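Risk mitigation, structural track. In case the binding assays with protoporphyrin IX containing FE fail to produce interpretable data, a predicted complex structure has been prepared as a fallback.
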Amino acid sequence: MSQTNTSTRPAPTRPVWDPLVRIGHWTLVIAFFTAYLSGDDLFNIHKWAGYVVAGYVLVRIVWGVIGTRHARFTDFVRGPGAVLGYLRSLFSGKAKDYAGHNPAGGAMVIALLFSLLVTTSAGMALYAVEDNAGPLAGIVTEETFAPLASAFGEEGEHGGHEESGAEELLEGVHKAFVYITLALVGLHLAGVVASSLAHKENLARAMVTGRKQVHEEA
Ligand code: HEM
Ligand code: HEM
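Fallback model:
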């Protein structure tokens, strides 16, 4: 009731991340690493974890258009100038505050979603071509990739079974984008740590509670 001594109170916070963004983020983290660790073996787990990733990415893209204020792409997608400006302000120790994603974080969200989309699409296309199964079965076939695949390489033998050019191509794209995603995740975590230090706020916790400190600029 009394508002006299505010200096000992914790910094005021406000809700920023809605439940879809928060629950979706941690589901994505678990599903991504489950798919990664089950890549070679346990194929059903791999497939289903991958479908969770793909499903969430599609939901998140729609939510980026119709979702809550700070979930929308228009709230955090900025040009290269703003991204570089934020990075410069981060290194000079005067990082500008944003209520939602900062411009560099926003660029990383787009890069991660794109990389996950290619990874999972290539995985599903590979499954369709190899086993004629999964959501792309009948939609994507050897013929779909015939022109590209013949340029990519000849048919060959791998792990005891004949592999077509299309399979080699899709496996190459699938694995390459897994590693591109992993590299982005490394940068993502470095960005979360750097921004958390610069703004003196635990941003990973904010992804759990949904609340961030109130700043003048926000
Ligand atoms: C334990 C590891 C991780 C931590 C602590 C973490 C933390 C965070 C934090 C704090 C944010 C919000 C950034 C901001 O304040 O602007 C965020 C956003 C995001 N992270 Fe992570 N992250 C982790 C792993 C991952 C992984 C593995 C992926 C994807 C494979 C990922 C994808 C994303 C995406 C797509 C967003 C945007 C959220 C949205 O707007 O929907 N994160 N993460
Ligand atoms: C982000 C999600 C995914 C990640 C991180 C991921 C990761 C991987 C990795 C690391 C491998 C290589 C295993 C190895 O040869 O060492 C692999 C192979 C494979 N993945 Fe995925 N994957 C994902 C999603 C999917 C999806 C959605 C599908 C389709 C249902 C799929 C189908 C396959 C297939 C068919 C292989 C080849 C298995 C083989 O014949 O050796 N993946 N994946």
